[in-house]
Design goal:
The structure holds two protein chains of two kinds. Chain A is mainly beta. Chain A has one helix and ten strands, in the order E-E-H-E-E-E-E-E-E-E-E. Chain A is globular, with a radius of gyration of 16 Å. In chain B, the strands form two sheets. In chain B, strands 1, 2, 3, 4, 5, 9, 10, 11, 12 and 13 form a ten-stranded mixed beta sheet that branches. A two-stranded antiparallel sheet of chain B has the order 7-8. Chain B is α+β, with helices and mostly antiparallel strands. Helix content of chain B is 30%, strand content 18%. Chain B contains twelve helices and 13 strands. Chain B starts with 10 loop residues before the first strand and ends in a 5-residue tail after the last strand. The longest helix of chain B has 16 residues. Classes of the chains: A mainly beta, B alpha+beta.
Amino acid sequence: MTNSTGHIETTESYLPEGLAIPVAETDGLSAPYRAGLRDNRLLIQRCVACRNWQFGPEWICHKCHSFDVGWEEVPAEGVIYSWERAWHPVHPALKEAGPYLVVVVEVPQAGGVRLLGNLLGDPLVDVPIGAQVEGVFEHHRDSDPPYTLLQWRLLTDHSGDIGGS
Amino acid sequence: MMSERSLRGQVAIAGVGETRYYKHGESPHPEFRLVLMAILEACRDAGIDPRDIDGFCSYSNDRNIPARLASALGTKRLRTSLMQWGGGGGGCCAAIANAAAAIRSGQADCVVVFRGLAQGQFGRYGRAAPARTVEGEPSYEVPYGVLSPAQRFAMKARRYMHENSVGHEALRSIAMAAYHHAQSNPRAVRYGKPLDEETYDNSRWIVEPFRLFDCCMENDGAAAAVLIPAERARDFPNKPVYILGAAAGADYRAAATSHNAPNYASATFATVATDLYASARVSPADVGSVQSYENFTGGVMMALAEHGFFKPEETSDFLRLDNLLAPHGKLPLNTSGGNLAECYMHGFELIIEATRQVRGTAINQVPRNDVALVIGGPMVFPVSNLMLGSEATL
């Protein structure tokens, strides 16, 4: 569903529960990213000094070596850069999950940085590289600790049937 | 411009050895004993007293540490202990280069390079260890079901195939070449198990675009090579096999987290291949056989392109089975069966096979055997490669 701030969110999990829960490092490097997702916001690192975008997060800007690396919110929209369809379960939680789709998504509004996610919907679809996708914030609020994943769906697919049939 | 400083012709491989290769979990011996067996076999092949080894070198966080090996073998004087950073088979050639550098700089005189794997004892790579939370790089992958090496690398191969209009036949040729060569190699774990097109095409998907036969085996065993200074090379019984060049590393931001490598559709050899040819002073046309590490066939495809054997857009045309077969294909590939069909010894079996090719004693011997190339585990960071040559190339 689309919420009042225009973000698409769901509490329906694409993959079964039981995979490891993503958490920020003990040094806190990715804490703003993780907190942003829980708040339906996509935050990407951007150097305050030279305006370079960077992801995954790092303590230093790889372009100008400034340590003043901030975070900026960008729309959860992107383009499929590559994909895979996983069949063989490599974790007990995935035993009945396959096949499932993983996409690498480029975010043009953040300098083309890439994010990984699942492509929601029919797992047997012929995935079009270059197609536009929109982000879906998948909340796991009852998890300990709670976390949110950013998933993707094809922009042409406005059925609202998040998570597939 | 490449520095004059080079390993070219300075160090030779005097002996190679391996244990019997087993299916994973089937070794009757513990890993440490396997490593000792491989080292003794390499020393026997070289005609060297194992007590005269003064250095040990490995990669991929090998568990069999030099101090314990030296004590077990009665090493008279341990001088060098080297470990190449990085996992998988990315460091297999770098381990040879590091040993050679130690010898060339006078830090050691006789170094054994080795790798041992007993997965029954220590667990497999293709199965993820369950954990409750995950942070750092895997935190961008694991929650989306990207856990195994195959799942982490499939999207690089997919992107390359998309950019260069490559079909699955190219991957199939790589798998079939390895299996073809293994059928005449009694050491090969897949000896007596030929692979035809139909079997490949009907095999199950692991993660598209990789089928079962695109993925390496996991095995138990150990392998070793003994390195000595070139000036002593003729004192030993085998035809000397010289290190012409070696390189290791990765191109710009290759390891950027969450699949952000700028050069994504890559086996990571963009700069490393250039360095190798410059240090070895040979060109792709001089290479008579290639042993190219198959974690997955897609990595071989990109690694061969990055080593200049064909342009990316020529991938489908070049990667036809008859081009890849010994003895007379354009580019005999993985001539003992490689990781797919001989043994997954993290690429060390490839170094041994390249050595045998230069000696002229390989099971699937190629006639052009003065220069042999080894390409270490592709798509990881850092990667490494190695050029071996006969005395005629010096």
